[in-house]
Queue: 2 jobs
Job 1
Amino acid sequence: MSMYAAMGLTQFLSNYPGMDVYPVRGSDLRLEGVFTFSAEWKDYGLLTDAFTLRINIPELFPKALPTVHELDGRIPRTQEYHINQDDYSLCLGSPLRLLKAISVEPTLSGFSKRCLTPYLYAVSRKLLQGGELLFGELAHGQPGALADYLNMFGLGTNIQAMRAIRYLGMKKRLANKLSCPCDCGRRLGVCTFNRRLRSFRLLAQRNWYRKAFSNFLESNLDKGCTRSFSYVEQMVREGRLNLDERE
Ligand SMILES: [Zn+2]
């Protein structure tokens, strides 16, 4: 139980008494039940609501993200409500943005407060009053995620962001020898961008970034992005980016 203790399971269950723990195969954790929250945001005021949710917590949490499903069908399963169309899980934001938010308070309650509640607040407001989804400008889907990463990295182009993600999937020592994603023309190891990239290594494991990278490669993005990706794929083919790096 020490893993669950580190996640703050007891605190979570006392903060959200409608939620219960269900056994699952492996080391993942499943939380299910009525998730009641109160939140207040700017001019939109205080709001209290409850949704029936199933939250799957991966073993690697807080360095991997929970997936959340709403079980009562109150939230329409559409893009407009930021529902992922592949598995109808809630799209709470770009994955890296969420990992960063969780890293500030790496517990189940931290995730609930910083990632889940803001989304549910926005959805609840929209269900009550219509209009646009608050925080709706938040990245949605793969194209949104890449745009958001570009922003988080402080880079200028999709190709640069893709390279940064690829480098995060490699050992530091190897990535440092490659040309810097910021296009300064130097090796990553001698550019100040190295320091910025290093902070992202704390958020997730190399494996996570490798998966994110291949998800981008496989996803159906707009033309500009697809072009960027074939560029990256070409780099992979030419051995300038090695996807089969050994651990
Ligand atoms: Zn650089």
Job 2
Amino acid sequence: MKIDRRQFASAAAAAAFCANRFAHAKDHASVKIDRVELFPVRYPLTGYFKFFTGPHGSSGRAAVLIKITADDGTVGWGESIPIAKWSYETLETATIVLRDYYTPALVGRDPTDIDGALAAMDLEVAPGFSTGMPITRSGVDLALYDLTGKLRNQSLAQMLGRAPGGPITLSWTVNVQQLANVDRVMEEGRRRGFRNFNIKVAPDPKFDLQLARRVRENAPEGFLWADANGGYDPATALDAAPKLADAGVDVLEAPLKPNQMSGYRALTKQAALPILMDEGVISPTDLREFYKAGMLNGVAMKPSRCGGLRSCSQQIELCLQHGLMWLGSGLTDPDISLAATLALYGAYGLSKPAALNGPQFLTDSVLAVPLRIEKDQAHVPTGPGLGIEVDEPKVLDLMKRSGLQPA
Ligand SMILES: [Mg+2]
């Protein structure tokens, strides 16, 4: 076979391209985690939300920002976002575990081996019933996805082999202590362009029914999602679920504590409302087992509760496989965690309004360019890694204003 000069040039260019790609891949394979830096902060809050008060009179949304630097200088950012009043992880315990247990296990590792890093962290802090310190380790998972994406020049969606999707419709949280405040809180949401509302219910079903009716009256077309945060006992939940359905609620999340397994089975069997779990669904194994036990119709996803993007993406896959409902939720995520969550939900084509209320309650950002949120539409970041640029002076300033020190 003869080849002409042009064919030869083109074959040579292709060979050079492949060699170059190979060299790049080889470079990445040899990159190691050089250091992990930690910045504890409390993001300032606006409005009332029942979870955010800390010890010694502190307030704000706690987070530990995690900067992982590879030995080629590439940086990945993540953040752990504990809420002591939501689960057992606190700003202080997250900081100590990240500094004294996870960091020594991470330094020197290949940052693109995310499964390997998660397994290494398991050896440092053993699992309990499920994955240990999931919210704390979620920050590491986020930083490793960010770093890997930057090394490979791939977005999160590309790393997952999916299209970016989005935008994501956001839902407004109605968390009130008095019914007289419902209209005002909803009006504030509407003023900002929100059309869908999620309510916090339990422990008082009488109050909850009035709240649900009022919100439904004010938003007849919206998706109305009630989250009890495990606050009912089984008898109360079984009594309340059909009444909440009559009041116009579309789904009931976390009616019981997650270890009330027979109660969950009874509620799912009752079928008054789709029963979603949140608290207690941490690893993909938990979800598979709870599904097999007939405890749920779906899950309110949140990467931070699951130990990060790896576990959460596997759980969304499980839901898709078994026809379970999955809704997009979060832990009042600040910007880095919110960016990761939006990118994940976009990649899996979330269509229902997401209870991502960071933009509703948090007033500060550490990003060089803020996330694009127009009315209730949150655009999915599509750049390499988590698709964001963290402004380190803003991180240091927020830490200083929080009265905290680097760990
Ligand atoms: Mg919830």
